[in-house]
Every structure is written in structure tokens, then in C-alpha cells.
Amino acid sequence: MIKIDTEKLISWFLKHKRKLPGRDITDPYPIWISEIMAQQTRMEAVKPYYERFLKEIPTIKSLALVQEEKLLKLWEGLGYYARARNLQSAARTIMEKHHGIFPRTYEDTIQLKGIGEYTAGAILSRAYGLPYAAVDGNVLRVLTRYEANPIDITLTSTKKYYKKQLELLQPSNFGFFNESLMELGATICGPKITKCEICPLKDNCKAYVQNGIGLYPVKSKKIKITIHEYTCFFLIDKNQHIYFEYKEEGLLKGLYSPYIVEETMSEIDANNYLETKGLCVKDIVSLQEQKHIFTHQIWYMKGYLVHIQNKENLVGRFYSKEEIGSTNMYYKTSYKSKLGNIIIAACEDALIGLWIEGQKYEYKTVPKEDIIENDHYFILVETKKWLDDYFNNLKPDIKRLSLSPIGTNFQKDVWQILMEIPYGSVITYNDIAKKIAQKYGMEKMSAQAVGGAVGHNPISIIIPCHRVVGSNGSLTGYAGGIDKKIALLTHEGLDMKTYFVPKKGTAL
Question: Exposure of 496 by Cβ count < 10 A (0-12 exposed, 13-18 middle, 19+ buried)?
């Protein structure tokens, strides 16, 4: 078992620690952000990005809801943008599975996207004081020198060994202990420059005592990079759909890929090859060569755009450009209310639909068959809470929810006006028409056109289209039905004696 004077090391750390992002706090969210930012980036360089990020995205919930464009803009300059996307994916998991609270168990934390053993140990020990080690390159360098251990630090087993060893120790504060080891490696026990004379562990450091600092840590030789040459066929059928097949093995396992052959072919050879596979080639166009660099492989890709007249002998399927270009997943759930069953739909980062079951234009903006049932998706859960508050007369703020209604620019402008109507108030179609005319610099806008936009509102109740009435007090134009409109206005406390249901027509 490794023996370290943990309290001496912690005492040194508390006296000499640097001022760094995420330090001297116990809130897991900023600690998490600082740890992810510090990956592949010098900690000193992280500070301005860290401060700006937390100012714009101060909570896990706001991280889960932020638009990707804004997220990546805030990350600009740090590089490795997958880290930012993984942060948001993990935040959404926390909202969905952990009620918006960063998990307290190692098992739950390690399941979050972008969080490995080191990051999990760092967050849990610093935020919650849990006894989990955080072993990175700095820590491995310190420990192998301290023990004069020739163990290969590039091996996963080495990390696991030292993680286990450290977790057997019982420091007074495991968070401080983890930070002290990292600080020691970053400021004293460097890869090339060391300051052994001021190291708090020098008296028991075997490498120092044996004058062998330069012998440790031991790293295995770099893995040889292999070079591969491929021909990539983008097969297109008569419907302009593109062929992709699911890879069961290899580097692309679990991914969809175009038709790939491991050899470089000329255009004539490529044409002949496809014909030998039973494909009738209509035309073939050579594409610019590409180079793809992986960790231990380099792929040189020669591509061809190929229109084919048959689909026999192909194991994959053809996808439309819309299918390929669509990156959104859609989720839905149901909510039982006094108005009847309500259907709620969301994309990955915002609410896109709320319909009273059976209403006009239900599922108009998103095909029903494209929506996955998910009662626990965090946006849907938040929407249910909002509806609970609404039907309990708590007047919830619309700004609590991230909304992304799908429609034309004109419709969105109308819906934006609807969002500004106070609880328990109404506005007329003519009033909205005047506002729209003013916005567009027009002399006049049709109230009928406004009525059409109001009627197509895809997020009922929350975007309160029920608060729009005719100039003469007529109740009309509600896709959910006049009875639902009356019920909602009555619920909000309006005196319904001043309004009426027209016998015919719209009476806008």
C-alpha cells in the first residue's frame, strides 16, 4: 500500500494553491465545467472562458436548454467542441433522470456523457467530499516518482492500480487531497522541470532520494500509425435517395456509412467493380480525395458519386436528403387535465407542441409517427409542472419554458404577440393586426390573416391563443373548440357575460 502523509500534503496545498476556475467552491456544476474546460487546455487559459460561460449558462437546467449555436459560441477558442456537446447531453440526462441535481454516486456520474473516471472522482470528491480518487497524468507522474515505480503509466491498469491505492488512504478532506496531488504535479513535479527542493514529499520520495527523478514516469513506445486507402461510393437511386449501411464491426462499428471498399480505384475500375456486384451504373462522378486522421490510423479516401438503376444485392437502405439532414429527435407525453387529455411534444432542447387531444391541426407541425413516447424527458416534465401550476391558479411565467413553435415567420410574429398577453386578459384580432402592420411598416394588416396564424398556434394554453377575441366580443377561432376556450378564460377569472359565441361566421 502506498504511504503518503496526506495531512502534510493538504497543508502545503492550502498554503500554496493557485487561484483557478472552479476552486474553493463545493457546487458540483461549476466544478464540472472547470474540469471539462481544463481537458486539453491549460488551466490558466481557461479562466475567461469559464467566467463567461457561467455568466451566460449559470445552471444545469440552463445548460440543458441552451441553443447549440450559443453553446458553441461560448466554447469558441477552447477547441474540441465535442466536449461542449457532451456537457449539454449530460445536463439533459441530469434533468431527465436526476431531477436537475448533479448525482452523488460514482455509478450515476460515470454514466454521464463526457465524464470518465478522473472527472467523476474530481467532481464527487471536491463537491461532496466522497472518497474517490482523481488520477490523471500529473498524479501518475507524482506517484511513480514517489515510489520509484517503473510501471507503464500509459496502461489503463496503472491508473486503476493507483486509483485503488489512493482510495485506501483516509485523508481529512478527500477533495483537498485530490487537488493537492494535481497541484503538486502541475507546479512542482513537472514533466521536465522539477522543484524537488521545495516539494513537501521529498523526504519520502524514492526517486528524489535515489537521484533518479529523470527515470520516471515510464511510458511505452508510441503505437505505430497505420495507413489505409479506401474507395467510398455514394450510391444514389432514381428518387435521389442516398445509400447507407449499418456497420457491425471495425472502426465504424455502430455507425451508418456509405458503401466503402478498402482499396483505391480509378473511375474505370470503380465502374467495373460496381457492375461485378450486380449494380447497373447510370453515371459516375469523381469526388475530391479526403484524408481522415484517427488516433492510430490515417484513412485516404477516394470518393465517387454514383447514380444507379437498380438496388439488388445491397444490404443497407436508401435515405432521403431530409432524413439525412434531420438531427432532431422528438418526444411526447400525455397530461390529464380538466379540459381532457393534452398531448405535449418536444424536440431535443425545446417545447414544440401542446394540443388538446382531438383538436384541429393536432400533430400538424411534426408527423405523429416521428415522435417517441417518453414520459420522463426533462422538457416534458417541466411542461407538466407548468400546467400543474396553471390549473392550480398559480399563474406560471411563460419564460420558465423554452419554446420553439414551428411555423412561418409571419405566424411566429403573431405567436410572439400572444405570449405577451397577460394572464386573465384578452386582445382582439384587430389589435394584433395593427401591431403586425406596425412591425412590417404596412398601412394595414388583415385580421383574417392574423386569425389564421392564431388558429395554427401549435403550443396551446402556454402560447395563449385562447386570449384572442373578436372586436365585438365574439368567441371564435380556437382550434381546441369554443367550449375549451370558454373554460380557459373562465379559469383565468374573466367575466364571460361580455362575450358571446357567434351563430355563424368568424366575426373577427
Answer: exposed
Degrees (nearest 5) of the Cα angle 280, 286, 291?
A: 125
CATH code, domain carrying 355: 1.10.10.10
Catalytic annotation on 35? yes
Domain co-membership, 286 together with 352: no
Specify whether the CB–CB gap between 334 and 344 falls below 8 A: yes
Residue with cell 377561432: 477
> pTM score, two decimals?
0.54
Average the pLDDT over 185-191 and give the result: 95
Residue 325's pLDDT band (cuts 50, 70, 90): low
Residue closest to 267 by CA, chosen among 286, 288, 280, 287:
286
Residue 356 is part of which domain span? Answer: 330-498
Q: What are phi and psi of 130, to 5 degrees?
A: -80, 150
Per DSSP, the residues of 444-494 read ---HHHHHHHHHT-SBTTTS-GGGEE-TTSB----TT-HHHHHHHHHHTT-
Is there a contact between 323 and 244 (Cβ–Cβ < 8 Å)? no
Tens-digit pLDDT profile for residues 341-395: 999 999 877 899 999 988 888 877 776 766 878 887 788 999 999 999 999 999 9
For residue 113, is it within any domain?
Answer: yes
Q: What angle do CA 76, 82, 83 make, to 5 degrees?
A: 75
The one catalytic residue in 7, 35, 44, 262 is 35
| Rounded distance between C-alpha atoms, residue 89 and residue 111, angstroms | 11
Do 300 and 337 fall into the same domain?
Answer: no
In angstroms, rounded to a whole number, what is the distance separating the alpha carbons of residues 181 and 201?
Answer: 10
Which tops the pLDDT comparison, 328 or 419? 419
Domain boundary residue, one of 291, 308, 323? 323
3-state helix, strand, coil in the chain (%, to 5): 40, 15, 40
Q: What is the pLDDT of residues 149-185, one digit of tens each?
A: 999 999 989 999 999 999 999 999 999 999 999 999 9
Residue carrying C-alpha cell 467530499: 129
